[in-house]
Amino acid sequence: MNPSKEDIKVWLKTTGRARQWLADQCGSVSKRTIDNWLSSPKEIPFATLTLIRRLMEDDREEEIERRKRRDLPQQQIFSVEVDLGTFRDYSRAALDLQLTLEEWVIHVCDAELGRSVRNKVITLPGKAGDDSGGC
Q1: Would the pLDDT of 112 be above 50?
Q2: What is the rounded CA–CA span in Å between residue 128 and residue 78?
Q3: What is the pTM of this model?
Q4: DSSP 28
Q5: Is-contact 104 93, C-beta < 8 A?
Q6: What are phi and psi of 61, to 5 degrees?
Q7: Contact, 107 vs 122, CB < 8 A?
Q8: 73, 125, 69, 77: which is closest to 97 by C-alpha?
Q9: Domain map (residue ranges) of the chain
Q10: Cβ(73)–Cβ(64) below 8 Å
Q11: Residues 12, 33, 44, 55: is their CA dihedral positive or negative?
């Protein structure tokens, strides 16, 4: 469904775009032509109205994407370098709890901070007598 002239006016205002910008987007149309279309009973040509509708839809889609990105938690990436023996110890500990290594690391770090670890008891592999554990 094509937008009404009022819809176009509101869209330009809410997006902070000038009528000159819209004229530029429409190709060989002047700002005065845009003014005439929006303020007179003269019909906007179908092809131009279709183009304006697409521009408005693109803006809506961009706003939806912007909101999605804003609402998503920002994930951080980090890496840990360990020797092969330690890696195997960590992997075994994760497998014992039926967790992936990534899940196990997150749970261990959460436990170290005193956060809930979803009813799982997590023990860090360590050397005999070494109870330092933690992240």
Answers
A1: yes
A2: 29
A3: 0.52
A4: S
A5: yes
A6: -65, -40
A7: yes
A8: 125
A9: 5-71, 76-135
A10: no
A11: negative
Q: What is the residue-averaged pLDDT of the chain?
A: 83
Q: Would you put residue 131 in left (φ > 0), alpha (ψ -120 to 50) or beta? A: alpha
Q: What is the pLDDT of residues 13-56, one digit of tens each?
A: 999 999 999 999 998 889 999 999 999 998 999 999 999 999 99
C-alpha angle 58/61/62, rounded to 5°?
Answer: 85
Cα–Cα–Cα angle for 94, 95, 97, rounded to 5 degrees: 70
Nearest-angstrom CA–CA distance, 101 and 89: 11
21 vs 51: CA distance, rounded Å: 13
Report the candidate in 16, 95, 23 with the shortest Cα–Cα distance to residue 52: 23
Round to whole Å and give the CA distance between 49 and 35: 14
Average pLDDT rounded to a whole number, residues 54-79: 84
> Would you tell me which CATH number, out of the four given (1.10.260, 1.10.10, 1.20.120, 2.60.60), belongs to the domain 5-71?
1.10.260
Helices (H), the chain: 5-15, 19-25, 31-39, 46-71, 84-96, 101-112
